[in-house]
Records
---
Amino acid sequence: MNNDLSVSNLVKNFGEFTAVDSVSFDVPQGSFFSILGPSGCGKTTLLRMIAGFEEPTSGSIMIRGKDMAGVGPNLRPINLVFQHLALFPMMNVAENIAFGLRRRKVDNATIKKKIETILERVGLPDYAQHQISQLSGGQKQRVAIARCLVLEPSVLLLDEPLGALDLKLREQMKVELKKLQAKVGTTFVYITHDQSEALVMSDRVVVMNKGKFEQLGTPQELYSKPLTPFVAQFVGDNNLWSGVITEISGTDAVIRTDEGFTFRSKVQGTVTVGHRADLFLRPETLRIQPADKEGLNTFDVTVKTILFDGANSRLLTVTPQDHELLVALPQNRSFDYIEPGQTIEVGWHPEAGVCFAAED
Amino acid sequence: MVISKSSKTALWLFLTPVLCWLLLLIVLPHIDLLLMSFGGENDYGDPIWTLQNYRNFFTEPIYWNTFLRTAIFSIITTFITFLLAMPVAFYIVKVVRPRFQGAMVLMLLLPFWVSELVRVYGWMILLRESGVINHFLLKFGLIDKPVEMLYNDATMIMGLVYTSMLFMAVPIISAMESLDDSLIEAAHDLGSGKLVIWYKIILPHCKPGITSGSIVVFMLVLGNYLTPNLMGGKNSLWFTEQIYNQFIASFNWNQGAAFGFMLLLLSSLIIWIGLKLSRQKLGEVAS
């Protein structure tokens, strides 16, 4: 498969500050690629370099095999959906969509046909003559995407376009965007700080922190096999313990936490006996009152509060040493008896936890 | 909304000074002028009502030619001011770093702390035959004998543009401040070059500011007396000079009043045509 976009050793400095630090990646044709990171991690700068609004300090950007150095944003076969959409308020929907086509000197009849087709595709037929101010948030979103897709770009860049929408609509647009991408087959590069957006929509996700890539992989890989403590913490929820490694064999280790628990767990990266390490454990890997304790790490916790959130409900519990832990609470009615103040036993399988050498 | 009786009284109380000001200083004198413009004398020297003062404006070519000349030069001045103010406003709003923006606007404002008279004399010191510019041109051997740069149309227009710059730049700056940078970037991203961005995005967005700036500048230039008189000299033939001459030189207040009203009517007409041509409404521009 060909790569629509390949970026190699890209660096961007602003004075002393390095916003993007030697980043390389390839995006295969027709895939949905996300760049996930906290605000200020350099993802917007990276996107603006791909779109052509910023000159890289060094490194190269290739789009369908063509080097983009020195090519202005108006000449790149790439389009950007802006964070606040940037629809032109002085034009109606049809004029907004026609804007790019007119710059290419496409004739009127073709423009009219293309507008119809693309509006149909994003689910807004008969909206051509509407003013931008008459549209709802989700409709504006779709017009902004249609305005780019009508130009048939090699790559469509999206800069947190769902950020301004309310939660319900955001959930809906996530699914719609994914469906739309599958339908049109255009390569999408999506940047976001919202891990759920990235995980739901993407074929592959890269986690970015402080200008560097932490890990690149499928959403499943990032979630279940984080390679760095940052990824473990940033993608999904995690419980954290600190402790000292007392035993190691291959990727299995024994860690003694600062509160005195001894757990068996997996390790990632270079961890040595006698050194400090951080143990990450997802809430859903903690089993409440396990029937079969064989091979599990078990201990007692006291329930502090029930954080009810439908299928995503959790228990906020504390160990006798006052260490807070989140425990997933399956909504299958078998744990309805649990109330705040109760002490329950929890257990987890050594395969589920992962230890990283502690950062100093 | 229901307004209680006491707040109604308060409203009138606060409006009174404004209404007094409007009535005593604007409406009453204008009514008097209007009446005066229809006044005249018959052959025996008795006061009568007549349209003769207005007829004079149309029958004497010197009057309406002067008016035409004034109006055309005012339009040219307004257009040049607009052409200069646009990049200035863009530079201040979009290019300069935000913390220098205030200073830039202040620099634009600073010359206006000095009276127009002083500023025009400043230009005259620079431009006259024995002025600074001629001095240096002679010194560097670029010319053999001093050139008279004052008292021609080009200099006059330059002076008028200079004195009206602020009134064009400020409304455009405030209109441009609400222009989201990402609109410019989006247009760039969708394949347009700089020219198209100016024409399709920046100008339409700044239209209300441009219109209100143009109206103010046009009215100010049309009604300006000092700059055309000093920098254009006796050849300037500015319509305000005709009004002045009637009032002061000929002591024909009736004719002067009629000219004053012609100026008001015709300039309003020009602005109305301008708004019609650019498909705008005065209410939209003012808001």
---
Amino acid sequence: MADLYLTHEKAVQMLKDIAQKGIEAFGPVQKDGSHLIEKITESSPIDFNYFITNNSIKEALFPRYEKILSYKINQEGVEVEDVAVDKSIVIMGGHPCDAASIPLMEKLFGWDFKDKFFLQRRENTTIITLACEEADKDCFCTSLGYSPRGEIGSDILLERVSDQGWKLKLLTDKGKEFAKTYESYFQSSLDIDKQYPKLSDQDVPVQFDPKVVKKWIDTHFEDPLWEEIASNCWSCAACTYVCPTCHCFDITDDATMWSGIRTKNWDACTLPYFTLHASQHNPREQHFQRYRQRINHKYSIYVNLFNAISCTGCGRCSRACGAKVNILEAIKMIASAAGGK
Amino acid sequence: MEQLQKKVQELLNNKEVDIVIGYTAISETETKPIFVKKPEDASKLVFNAYCYNNLATYLTRKDIKAFNKIGIVAKGCDIRAIINLITENQFKREKVLIIGMSCEGVTDPRNTDKKSIKCDVCKVHNPHIADIVMGEKVAETIAMKEKIHHADLEEFNKKTREEKWQFWKEQFSKCIRCYACRQACPMCYCNRCIVDLNTPQWIDTRSNPKGAFSWNLVRAYHLSGRCIDCGECERVCPVNIPLMLLNRTLQEEVQRSFDFEAGYDLEASPPLTVFEKDDEENFIR
Amino acid sequence: MQDNWEPKIIAFVCNWCTYAGADLAGTSRFKYAPNVRVIKTPCSGRIDPMFIVHTLEKGADGVMISGCHPNDCHYNEGNFNARRKYIVMRALLTQLGVDMERITISWCSASEGIKFANLVNEVTEKIRKLGPYKDFVQLNQSER
């Protein structure tokens, strides 16, 4: 198949046009000094000039809040109305660490209970990923087996060839179909800047062995190192919510006497009352217990259940943390305590 | 810096304090909080223009409160927080050993070439209440009696009512309800925050515009007369919502209506717990 | 806008003064608009300014708050505390771009039946001219 290229201008137009068609388009916007992945509208300030977005692409498939049913109570009883999850979705602007999170979340949402809200959306989604051009001290995708040019989870990989735009790499049938449907936005040639840096795996050196880390976690639940690792943590949910793989949720009702809607919203194990029992006992009362749980879940429990680590090394949690808790530093402290490597 | 490290080492050696909360360097331009319990760890302490965190927020954390005597490295705005917590009976003055740091100002966390705008209106570059004072005296540019006007508000106040509503609607639609603002804030220490109560559910917990609006409104309201302008909430917000616009509005209102600014006077009563017979009521029919 | 739209106004009143005043308006057979739904609280000091927000979120077009005159509070100081809270909340709501024309705070004593009736009529007319208040209701999205 002939080479395909895409310029920034055409990408902006393409996203906006897709959004007009009743398809949910998600792309990177620049707002108040940072870049976020948001649902695109006609007026979205789409911009591709960034290292990494503050948030991940997960909210395209796992919304911050979503109605799962509505109900009415009348003389006859309760009438429940289901919610259709049938819109097509196009996501553009994440990096390989974002795309790799989708198969990870599929394991959980497709486990013992098939979560149609995630799975149906996933089926109707095309993911266009931007290969990384930069990495910083908080990136560690390679330590988990991922890559700044990684293709896992993506339908199309965009590799930058100049200041103007990217070359397309069509990875799946969905990707090929997308390229065909939107061929008017692509072009067969682009002025290539041969000097343009290509980030490779060597630029993100491996910093630990996840197997060593898991072994330590599994055998050191009461170790005082956890308190040291989490000493600064003030138990907000910033890390959890910007994380591409964190997936906990809460169900709430917004109702009056005779009608209401049930919503599924994001929740976080780091928040103080996440494990509060009805008896008022809280098994994870202290901040470090909750941080320990987060690392434990990602690096050990998820592996036990699904043979995969629920982390893609994007480093967003470290960047978002106002208390400066750094997950890479934490994992390296564990690896060091476990005896090196 | 060395003076600070030596002093803390001494305090810990003599067991004058059980723990010292301070800052340590991550890089030349980044610091993070550190909890020093061993005298030899005192050498990790630093103090510079990148010490953003308001360490007073840790004084109400359960594990820290359990200590008998807590040393804390604090700049003027942090000391205001400590004073305010004492006026709200969260702990006694004797529980903290305030190591006050003379401070010329911190940089703007989003643009380290500039100074933070909060430092332009600071009245306490030199610690106003402290057990130990460190650092060279800095010239105070604003008198205690002077009424503060914040630079970001002056610009914002020019908007019309509709513009303001649209502005906040857009800003709050970004809010992901992570509560980083709440947790970073030294004044948010309620055992059970109003959003954590669900019988009944006072505040919608969803991160939709209605929920985000209610949350940010209620937090600003519950901070009225208590916010000491450290700006941490705005710094830690993962989606860059200009929260200080609301908090500063209430700071100025409380200053105007009740002649009060939080965190300067150990004997002060929180303004919403008292009243004057002649409080303003020109808005009441 | 529907042709038969009627302003929906919620009034939070204190039991000892304004509620009695409203009662007096009724027993005196003063005519006043039926658009105001009265919610009785023991004291204006109980009226958390967040009630204004909750009420507007649920679809009210206007909110009234009323209590005893200063020095007349049945609990001595409730209204003094309330006054400070309202001062602060008004500054906050104004800064958020809320239409403050729709929020009316008053002191209305048990003997001021006619004041209550007049106030209700005046506020209802004002809200009728302003139209329905959609701003808050539009925030309540359940789909992104």
